[in-house]
Amino acid sequence: MATHNIKHALFSAIITLIISAPILGLDLESAGTELKLTGASTSTLVSIVLAAIVVFLFQTFRDSIMGALGQMPKLNRFADREPMPQEKRLKLENIFLIVLVAGALLWPFIASRGSVDLATLVLIYVMLALGLNVVVGLAGLLDLGYVAFYAVGAYTFALLSQYFGVSFWVALPTGALIAALFGFLLGFPVLRLRGDYLAIVTLGFGEIIRILLNNWTSLTGGPNGIGGIPDPTLFGMEFGRRVKEEGNISFHDFFGIAYDSTHKIIFLYLIALVLALVTFLIIRRLMKMPVGRSWEALREDEIAARSLGLSRTGVKLSAFTIGAFFAGFAGTVFASKQGFISPESFVFLESAIILAIVVLGGMGSQFGVILAAVAVTVLPELAREFSEYRMLIFGAAMVLMMVWRPQGLMPMRRIHIILKKQE
Amino acid sequence: MQDLLYFIQQLINGLTIGSAYALIAIGYTMVYGIIGMINFAHGEVYMIGAYTALITITGLATLGVAWLPLVLLIALICAVIVASSMGWAVERIAYRPVRGRHRLIPLISAIGMSIFLQNYVHLAQGSRNMGFPLLIEGGFRFGAEDSFQTSISYMQITIFITTLICMTALSLFIARSRTGRACRAVSQDLGMSNLLGIDTNKIIAATFVIGAALAAVAGLLLGMYYGSIDPLFGFIAGLKAFTAAVLGGIGSIPGAMLGGLILGVSESMTSGYLSGEYKDVVSFGLLILILLFKPTGLLGKPEVEKI
Amino acid sequence: MNTSVKKLVAGIGASIALMGAGSAFAEIKIGIAGPMTGPVAQYGDMQFSGARMAIEQINSNGGVMGESLVAVELDDVCDPKQAVTVANRMVNDGVRFVIGHLCSSSTQPASDIYEDEGILMITPASTSPDITERGYELIFRTIGLDSMQGPVAGEYLASLNPERVAVIHDKQQYGEGIATAVRDTLLENDVEVPMFEGITAGSKDFSSLVTKLRDAGVDYVYYGGYHPELGLILRQARQANLDAVFMGPEGVGNKDINTIAGEAAEGLLVTLPPAFDEKAENQELVKAFEDKDEDPSGPFVLTSYTAVQLVAEGIEQAGSTDPFEVAEALRSNTYSTPIGTVEYDERGDMKSFEFVVYEWHSDGSKTPVN
After folding, report:
1. Residue from A29, A30, A33 to probe the interface with C (highest C Cβ count within 10 Å)
2. Are residues C180 and C36 in the same domain?
3. What is the CATH class of B2-293?
4. Which residue of A260, A397, B43, C18 is most buried, as measured by CB atoms within 10 A?
5. Do C362 and C243 lie in a common domain?
6. CA distance A232 to A161
């Protein structure tokens, strides 16, 4: 074993001690009017020391451990498999999709109220992630302010219903179109920026929208948000206990059944399901159309794509606008589900989570993105006992996934031909 | 006369905050200059620096150490050591393994690290606002006794002087020292420097450590200046400092300084003459405008499109 | 069938039986929703400690209608968005009585859900009048309103003959609501209010605001909001030699303001509910808190205690756990509680509630003025 290994291991162990001992080992507490420093519990101190020892041992035997890991069988045995022929794959995909939708349709009738509610949230994230997938995964435009369009959709519905009494079904297309308009207007000047600069400008834009919502108190209610957003109606039937709008009747009265708040939850879930499916199918269609191909062409090689006569601005703008459109869609459903929205729902972290879903799923891959949306939303709920550690684990998982499986859960597969090796 | 004094006061307020932003911005700009990635966890390193300083100051008070320069010096040293170790560890764990991959990968990894560190401190120290003891009090005043007076507190002077010292030291270090020269070489061409025998891994780690150390200094200064810290306050400051770095031209150290000052002054002028609510809108709006018309920032070098 | 499978089946059977048995001893779930984390978690501590104590004492005295109370505690971080999530979770958990929320901006959207889902809610801390103004059946509170507190503060400030008073708020429902009430009272009393401005909650740099205050030449500043921001404003104002007296509502009256503002907190004026823990008839209860090493002196400890007590007595009187019947009982009866006699009007507000002006000191103590 090389001495430099030990030296490095010792160094790493000391760094571990330095970064954990003061923050974890000492507690700041307010005692009366002053701050007081107390030592953490013995178990914390022991675990700090243990952590340092583990780091030391790992770094000392790093080479052999990594070597042993390398010899383990590959986790994904299908990774090197040849892609299926296109027809067979399409067929398989369709079957998978039908099974998925059938399962999702059955879900609300077997699951509890809480899980249906959660499933609605998952579907909202599916819509968002599919939309962002167009921008980031397909067109390769780094958008860190995607949540702004989500906010525009949600606030459009909230404001329209508050000031003009507009219903969900009118607000749904309106919200999506206004979000798309925002996308278009923002996209126009900024899309000539490249890579990271685009990311920064979109980040700035997202923050500006949030700050405006937070401060324009007279219109948006500021940090207090907007409440009383109506639920969707079914042919004029309302799902609340009492009818809010004149002329409507309530669902349970119409069918002569007892009021049950789960009706509303299930109805919302089904709407979200249909909308997510529509989003999925539209984007899948677009991917196979010339515009979808040109998104990918531009992502792969901008100069080559331009030299073939693609309009850079036009192609990028279409991706940006379409992505914003679906964010607006999702925003309207979200506003209706919550019945209340405030700027806190549209912080940068939300953009980061949606982006993480896209990257985690495998950029460009629709099924992967759906899988990741389910994982990112459901896993933290399952670990409710660890709710304190939820975001800590989420952050660590983001880092680990990027280190170990950067291509995502289900990487996008291009249809391609493998040329035979020369003898 | 009173209007002028009022203007000068807002200018001083802005320059104070601006120079602290500049200190944090160095971290962003150096890392971006060398490996072209946005170190999203930098704001959290700054926050950890502030927490370490507060822990040290409280600990020293318990031990009965009361001589102010000694307290500040020890707090500064501890904050710098912990934050630079954090900077080193973050680079090692989250960035080095993903270096050179698709540019979204390090970005997500950095955002993940930022979320992780925020919650790490949140869990360890709680989410409440911790009051920073008032160590440096008093200041100078100008103007007539019975009308508006411009005041500069000793704390503001401390911030100016410390920033000035740090910036001068950094410039000298980059210009004169061996490591500094290597830093410049690596930021020009990483592959070539590697070929010429520069240990690029070490240089990249050094950039993270230097950035983190300066952020820790800013953490101590701003913690004392504002008066309280919480686990979330690194994120906002990081975003501002990052804006400053881009404003001045990301990758350029004088640019970060300039960007920080412009940002600080524009913020305080907005709150002084319009309303404090919209100061962030003005800073981000300014950022977008500058990027649209001069995408490389005020002092950045134009990027050549490589084919 | 081998033995291990048999064991497994037996185990599952037993646990199903146990689950059945569990529901036979029906418990009454009491939801407690408030901030456990976040900048104003101090107030959440008060709320939780008061409510827990009440649940404990009621259970040790035989529960309610022979059934024991079980607390379901959830954290809303005082954020409206999380409050909605918490409210939905209460619904999903089958909770029918909620003590909470704390911040008005959280209570407002959460109460929409509670009313819709038939859950009775008593807030021990939210003072915004809007909450009970919507004609809801199931929403109550054990604290006064900003429309009572604001005039108390405004009248007191006016009685000091100020030259100019600045009114600042944090734009949240609570802060802005009370600041507006104070400003209106000041204007009615012909006091000049040159500044009425909002700040962003959570920001740290108030040097520009302080400069503005100095420029406006105010001698009094009223702040509607919570202590983390006011603490910083006080401190930065002192650093910049702003010579004005500050005043705030009960959201700032907390010892943590001293750790932030230090000496600058001396002389701060605060409107608070009267110190219930100093009343003679509450001394036994105060001792119970002190035995558990808890502080009963915070403004919301005993209001939370009372809220739980009201739910319990309401259930007893209604003879049912149906929230609508309990609400009916609460409206039609009078209760004697640690915060005095509670009598509700149609909206769910207490018919009388008093606020007192205190002077805050740099050691965290307070003395009533006049």
Report:
1. A33
2. no
3. mainly alpha
4. B43
5. yes
6. 12
Residues A189, B292 contacting (CB under 8 angstroms): yes
Report whether pLDDT(A1) > 60.
Answer: no
Nearest CA in chain C to A115: C92
Whether omega before C101 lies within 30 degrees of 0, making that bond cis, reads yes
The mean per-residue pLDDT over the stretch C267-275 comes to 90
pLDDT above 70 covers a percentage of chain C that reads 93
CATH number at A86-404: 1.10.3470
| Beta strands, E only, A321-395 | 340-341
- pLDDT at residue A15 greater than cutoff 60: yes
3-state secondary structure of C74: strand
For residue C345, being part of any structural domain is answered with no
R_g of chain A computed on alpha carbons: 25
Chain A residues within an 8 Å CB radius of B305:
303
Task: Tell me how close the Cα of B302 comes to any Cα of chain C, in angstroms.
Answer: 35
Report the pLDDT value the prediction gives residue C9, as an integer from 0 to 100.
Answer: 46
Residue A65: band (very low, low, confident or very high) from pLDDT cuts 50, 70, 90: confident
Of C267, C205, C269, the residue nearest C239 (C-alpha): C205
**What percentage of chain A reaches a pLDDT higher than 90?**
18
- At position A343, the amino acid (one-letter code) is P
Tell me whether C67 touches chain A (CB under 8 Å).
Answer: no
In this predicted model, what pLDDT tens digit does every residue of A108-124 receive, in sequence order?
A: 888 787 788 888 889 99
Among A371, A359, A368, A370, smallest CA distance to A397 is for A359
pLDDT at A417: 58
Domain of C214, in residue numbers: 147-272+356-368
Same domain, C90 and C186: no
Residues C71 and C82 in one domain: yes
Domain-embedded: residue C4: no
Asked if B232 and C236 come within 8 Å (Cβ–Cβ), the reply is no
Q: Is C313 a domain residue? A: yes
Q: Are A234 and A270 in contact (CB under 8 A)?
A: no
**Which chains neighbour B (Cβ–Cβ under 8 Å, 3 or more pairs)?**
A, C
List b or e across B98-135, with b for residues whose CB sees 16 or more CB atoms inside 10 angstroms: bbeeeebbbbbbbbbbbbbbbbbbbbbbbbbbbbbbbe
| pLDDT recorded at residue A246 | 63
Q: Which of A35-44, A362-371, C78-87, C249-258 has the lowest mean pLDDT?
A: A35-44
Burial of A43 (0-12, 13-18, 19+ CB in 10 A): exposed
> CA C205, CA C201: separation in Å to the nearest integer?
11
Which pLDDT score, from 0 to 100, does residue A27 have? 83
Tens of pLDDT along B278-295?
A: 888 888 888 888 888 887
Interface mutation target, options C84, C133, C293, chain A, most CBs of A under 10 Å: C84
CATH number of the domain to which C364 belongs: 3.40.50.2300
Residues 6+ apart with CB under 8 A from B2: B143, B147, B148, C215
Mean pLDDT of A327-351: 89
- Rounded distance, CA A240 to CA C117, Å? 9
DSSP states along B129-168: PEEPP--S--EEEES-TTS--EEEEHHHHHHHHHHHHHHH
For residue A388, list chain B residues with Cβ-Cβ distance below 8 A: 123
Residues C48 and C187 placed together within one structural domain of the fold: no
CA–CA gap between residue A326 and residue C262 (Å, rounded): 51
Of all residues in chain A, the one with the smallest CA distance to B113 is: A395
How many domains, in total, are found in chain C?
A: 2
Please give the Cα distance from A15 to B82 (Å, whole number): 8
pLDDT at C362 over 70: yes
Q: Give the pLDDT confidence of A225-268 residue by residue, as tens digits.
A: 888 888 887 776 777 666 666 666 777 777 777 777 778 888 88
Please judge whether B116 and A392 are an interchain contact, meaning their C-beta atoms are less than 8 angstroms apart: yes
Tokens 């400053």 correspond to B244
For the segment C164-195, what is each residue's pLDDT rounded down to a tens digit? 999 999 888 889 989 999 999 999 999 999 99
